[in-house]
Amino acid sequence: MDYQKNWDQCLELIRHELSSQAFDTWFSAISVLGVEGREITIQVPNRFHYEWLDSKYDALLKGVLKKSFGQSMAIKYSVVINAETQTQSAIPDNRPLEKLIPSHFHRASQLNRRYTFKNFVEGKGNQFAKAAASSVADAPGQTPFNPLLIYSTPGLGKTHLLQAIGNHILQNIKKTRVVYATSEKFMLDFISAIQNNQSTKFAQSYRNNDVLLLDDVQFFQTKEQTQEQFFHLFNDLFQQGKQIVLTTDRHPNELTQLKQRLVSRFQSGLIVDIQPPDLETRIAILMNKAKNENLDIPYDVTEFIATSIQADIRSMEGALVKLLAIASLKKEDITIDLSKKVVEDILGEDLMNQVTIENICSVVASELNVPENQLGSQSRKMELVNARHIAMYLSRELTNNSLLSIGKYFGDRDHSTVIHGCKAIEKKLKKNSVMNNVLTSIKNKLL
Predict the structure, then answer these.
(1) How far is CA 286 from the centre of its chain?
(2) Cβ neighbours for 161, distance < 8 A, ≥ 6 positions apart
């Protein structure tokens, strides 16, 4: 363990180069497994940690290693699988990222073990899809849900559910042969088989499985030979009672360049969709992401990101990662202001200028001639109560904030108070044309 002294010296040098937050985030959890000649093996807690060190701190690491060891050192990384097990083969720093086999990757099935039902956050928009996927995973090929087709716009969790099915089957139904592929990989495999006169081998590689998980089938459109090959594969697997699960980015009826006989087969099973998650589900997804990555993110920041990015879970999670990266590299605290910069970079300035509770309160106060800072007060003056109810009503209608968040903004009121205020305005709208005119005027100034 002579190298440990050198490594401790490296850490001290790094500590002087970075903020305490950056050092604690990226270097406190790593250790040296061994040194052999001019090569050092460093253990990191997860795949993301490795990629970040390799892309952002490679020069710093090599510089301090050279100072401490007195010579240039090549770096290998070992990624921890779990608390007891580590990767058997370290990752050398000179291999391209796309050639690396992450520790959570299941080579035979092509599945990513991170995609499980346990870490899939369930909400109203995906509840039915998850239930169907779970049912198929418990008894592949033995339910009426064959094929199972899951569709949604990109970034809402189709791939997560698809691979969760495969991971569940591999863990609980031993010796089941599962293969996961994107439609692009299927097509490239088919083209390669034709070029190398191995069409029979290609067909068998997909037919000799009990479960076929195929992602993004919409890309088969216009690929006539690939569609023909998949049609025969589908029929063969279906006749044998093998489970087929597919995903697309829209309903099969909208895949206009897909052969009708394929669409007809897709519709012979169960078709489920995933809707964009509501605010509460988005917050839960971000909190789950932070927990899995051992990140400490303030709740108000989490809620801001979830409120700002609504239609794409991947973009939302990407904002969280980018926020951490900027805070680490620039040695800044994670704040709402920093979050706004990150979200604006992702969405663009126009989308950032959407209606907020603050905007609504400002316009309502101006329109009704009441003090804006009194909207969240405990005052029961009639004009203030009316303005407060209007602001609550518009906050629920024009923003994606939860009732809890709206109530909190208006003086830490309970969500039931918000519901009462909204109902009061709804009643006035039915009886009072003046209220309609007031709301129209306010909306015109907001939108």
Answers:
(1) 8
(2) 115, 120, 126, 129, 130, 133, 150, 274
Q: Could you give the CA distance from residue 231 to residue 263 in angstroms, rounded to a whole number?
A: 10
Has residue 232 got a pLDDT over 50?
A: yes
Q: Which amino acid is at 128?
A: F
Per-residue pLDDT, 99? 39
What is each CA distance from 441 to 137, 365, 444, in whole angstroms? 53, 13, 5
Q: Is the peptide bond before 147 cis (omega within 30 degrees of 0)?
A: yes
Ramachandran sector of residue 60 (left: φ over 0; alpha: ψ -120 to 50; beta: rest): alpha
How do the residues of the chain divide into helix, strand and coil, expressed in percent and rounded to 5?
A: 55, 10, 30
Q: Rounded to two decimals, what is the model's pTM?
A: 0.57
3-state secondary structure 159-221: HHHHHHHHHHHHHHCCCCCEEEEEHHHHHHHHHHHHHCCCHHHHHHHHHCCCEEEEECHHHHC
pLDDT at 400: 67
Q: Is pLDDT above 80 for 73?
A: yes
Secondary structure of residue 387 in the 3-state scheme: helix
CB 222 within 8 A of CB 125: no
> Does residue 105 surpass a pLDDT of 60?
no
